[in-house]
Sequence to fold (815 residues):
Amino acid sequence: MSTPDMRERIDAFPTHRIGPYRVRAGRPFPYGATPVPGGVNFSVYSDGATTMSLVLFERGGTRPSAELEFPLEFRIGSVYAMTVFGLDAENLEYGFRAAGPYAPEHGDRFDAGKVLSDPYARLISGREVWGREPDWDNVYHYRAQVLNDDFDWDGDRPLRIPAEDLVIYETHVRGFTRHPSSKVSAPGTYAGMREKIPYLRELGVNCLELLPVFEFDELDNPRTDPATGERLYNYWGYNTVSFFAPKAGYAATGPFGMQADEFKSLVKELHRAGIEVVLDVVFNHTAEGNEQGPTISFRGLDNATYYMLTPRGEYYNFSGTGNTVNCNHPVVRDFVLSCLRHWVAEYHIDGFRFDLAAILDRAPDGTPLPNPPLLEQLAHDPILRHTKLIAEAWDAAGLYQVGNFPNYGRWSEWNGKYRDTVRRFVKGEPGLVGELATRMAGSPDLYQGRTSSASVNFITAHDGFTLADLVSYNDKHNEANGEDNNDGANDNNSWNCGEEGPSASPHVRELRMRQMKNLLTILLTSQGIPMILAGDEVGRTQLGNNNTYCQDNELSWFDWGLVEANAGLLHFTQALIAFRHAHPVLRSSDHPSGTDRVGSGYPDISWHGVRAWAPDWADHGRVLAMMRCGRHAKGGSVADDHVYIAVNAHWEAHDLELPALPEGQRWHLFADTATAVHPLGAEPELQHPGRFHLGAHSAVVLVGRAAQQTTA
Amino acid sequence: MAFDVRLKINDKVATIELKGELDASTAGEFHDTVGRAAGAGAVELVIHAEQLGYLSSAGLRSLVFARQKMGDEVRIAIVGATDPVAQTIRLAGFDHSIELVDA
Fold:
């Protein structure tokens, strides 16, 4: 039996004519523009519109080539759907024009003078080249286009790396290779990033977390650098214009409209290299901003549906950016869910980090919901079943949910308490030994009853100081942002090691290097999912700027010259990551209990101080040692060595008494942040088996195993 | 230069010569030619692109079409692509499924 030609089906014939265009009533789902036999199906939702038109442009045209008003019989419920035949989809840009009431006090802000972008557009033109000044008089800036999903995935499958085995690397598509030192063929693009995959492999990370890649407008920042007069950008991209479209300005092939393929190629190659891809997604607000913001899409289609509004029709602002998406409205829930499904199904994305995720559990009036339907739906969605869901579990209006974000057994959280505790301990603050122990054990106080991968441990992220700046500045230095240094966080828990900013002092420089290694050591030996900010492994600086959201320049870009200049730090980080991968005892999914559950004679985790088995929990204590018993690795299911980590945040050295190992085993030195790091399997045995001299502001990692295995 | 596409098949090796610009207006002709090569059971497809001056997004997508039409087991080589054309193919990531060969 042969397959019938789709063009011969009855539903592939037009039934109406609008001007020269042959059309028929379309299919309401999926929303957006979808190629169908002989034409393109357009579908858009608006509850309050009185009329709706499809606006067609020839690609790049300044005026519409046609406007097709949806016949009334093409409307089902509040969805307008129409199939238009004979279109040249390759050369087509489209939008919608919605007429309806302008009554802000009732939530309506219809404006028939605007051409609106399709919220479900899977391709956007208008900003194909990063930073290129557009024609601001253009009637339609963010132009929806039709996408052909014909990418050759070549058998690509999800890696499904267990969450507890991840090492996340947070980076920015443009910033990663835009610096001239990157030496890639297309700097600042998905293609450029693809060329750096060997670097990521050598580093050892297995998950790339990308700052927003949904289409945004980098040119919507009106500020200039007060010192140079140069324009500032919306560099980070937390101002989404179009949620289903990859940013064209990040694609070398954006001018060809090939950004989807270029990004998919990056994902495919990362998967081949054993690296998952997590996207930082921003559903808490949109680029339309507050009452003074532009009408791009949602505001003109159904303002009262998409945004949280006060009883007087003003925008609630839980995001700090002017508007807040009405995430738990059923229509918006469907939008968010469809969007994430799209990125998983079409782009093979492995997970998402949700910016200001606490907003996702607010009701339309802003009240936190005890059982937010959106979060529950995402947790149990069939398409998202194996994707990682990571919440930034707070918002800009003070809802702080670290440890109690509604998780449904699925969600992880950026652990802000981990960040603050580790920073404060390492800079030498007193009274933190006990809390550091809790954080290094996977924060069971916050995540009891959940796996330890509920905690995404991080010390630095894009928002805040880099690792190098954390040990070089007491205060933020954001003057270049043009906000009189009032922007960015003030509570950085940083310490400049004796001198603010760059230092010529060998002592200060050496101390800073050691502090960076101390911080990395804690991060990569803690239970939970570690996340590293790109460039921290080579000491990248932002010269004290802790809020480079607007800095599209050397302040933000990865300087690849540091790979050579700070090769020692890079080597140390690589070694630590490799150590973590080699020692499953650091990556158990269950929280340690402090008891012996496998009959090894040792508890799964034990705490020590200057004296073995005698941790100093006192306020003045600044030394903490943690021993993990290898027999308990992954719940006792795999074999591993004992691992001992000690951190000294004191300004004086200490002679540590080491806990005794099982008969026939000896302690071997993997890393001492004051001296050296040794190759895996070739760690030298300690000369004094029961003691270790730990320098001031230093950390040590020892591995316990049979003496005869030593090769050094 | 006007677009021109010619197909030769010799011992299961299909050779396509392209001239001019491969874009939305010419992609259909290229698709038909690829379809004929696939229909003839070619086990290798060699696309001579020395005289291909421009490749639009529709042209790039034609290469995706060729890959899918010919099947995974068929080697596809593009011979002598000019630097801009080769660069476009590389940046889009198609050089992993289609071989770029110097003339």
User: Anything to note?
Assistant: The first strand of chain B starts at residue 4 and ends at 10. The mean pLDDT of chain B is 88.
